[in-house]
Amino acid sequence: MSRFRLYPTPAQEAALLEQCRHARYLWNLALEQWSMWRRDRGPTPAYVEQARQLTEARAAFGWLRSGSQTVQQQALRDFDQAVRNFYGGTHRRPTWRKAEHHEGFRIVGGQASRIMKLSRKWAQVLVPKVGWVRFRLSWAVSGAKSYRITRDRSGRWHIAFAVVPQPIPAPATGEVVGVDRGIAVSAALSTGELLSCPGLSAREQTRLKYLQRRLAGCRRGSNRRRRVKSAIAKLHARAADRRKNWVEKTSTDLARRFAVIRVEDLRITQMIRRPKVKPDLERPGAYLPNRRGAKAGLHRGIVVNAWGALVRRLEHKATGRVEKVNPAYTSQTCSVCGHRAPENRESQAVFRCVACGHRAHADVNAAINIAAGRAVNARRETPPRVSPKREPQLATSA
Known about the structure:
Elements: E1 2-7, H1 10-35, H2 47-60, H3 62-65, H4 69-88, E2 103-108, E3 115-117, E4 122-127, E5 131-136, E6 146-151, E7 157-161, E8 176-181, E9 187-189, E10 194-195, H5 202-216, H6 223-257, E11 260-264, H7 268-271, E12 278-279, E13 287-288, H8 292-304, H9 307-317, E14 322-325, E15 350-352, E16 359-361, H10 362-372, H11 375-378
Parallel strand pairs: 8-11, 11-14
Antiparallel strand pairs: 1-5, 1-7, 2-6, 3-4, 4-5, 6-7, 8-9, 9-10, 12-13, 15-16
Helix pairs in contact: 1-4, 2-4, 5-6, 6-9
């Protein structure tokens, strides 16, 4: 994906929002039809039937006919593909799209390639029912087969062209690197480098807390609440931009420097899942503590440090060169002698082996174990703990 900043005029912005409303309406309508399936009923309408219904609806309703049929049909195609992905097990279940949260639509076909370069830094793209819209040309665009126009919560418009980039060639050194992802240190390399993902500054965090307190006191639906929400969205968008920029630069640097990149095989989706409630059996209607507040801090740290985005971009740029390693005991195992014990991890940042006395940064030590791959378990000297209940019983002679 090649993503650029879009700069529509006020009239074009109103037309774009109208297209977003049409696409969101048809997506939710298709989702409603799909959700009405029951075993005792027939199959729900597929894309072909929904496209026929769309033609009848456009003939009956002028507000729908005023929009682009290309945008509306593509919304139905996208939903049909989302359902196929859900049944294929590669994506989650399609959900409802909300106003001011999911503003966007997609164009596929010949119109997606109608791009005109204006200068070295500016270009324009033809949008159905809107016209030529300018966007900031950060780099060259070629071979675009489709594009998606989106509007984030801070009011910024973006256009993303579907272009398959060429992977970065592997260096001839054959060097292997291990990457340990964490909260205090975003990414620790087996070479000893500690990388931190930039976020909001201390001053920006103070302002964010102030705005959040103001938001709590605003009346719902008021103009003040809308202005405060817009200011908060701008701060979050600024942090997201810095995070994406760091991910792109870090993934490109690692793909160019190392032939093989080994990372932990973490199930991030399950790690950030909301903890289940624990009913109190002794008090009906009451619940036991489930450490939801503490887990929320971990979730926030995972998102802020871009654990998933870093590995995802590495797999795109270093195709076939990213290996995932079992993360079990990588932070408790000494990278020198292989001794494994919980006492080796003195603190979050200090690792000291109780067997050989090796001292190192805890995240760097874990990254070295990750770089070793499966050899970590092979050279472990500490025997596995055996439960007393499962110890074999020696046969006694009569």
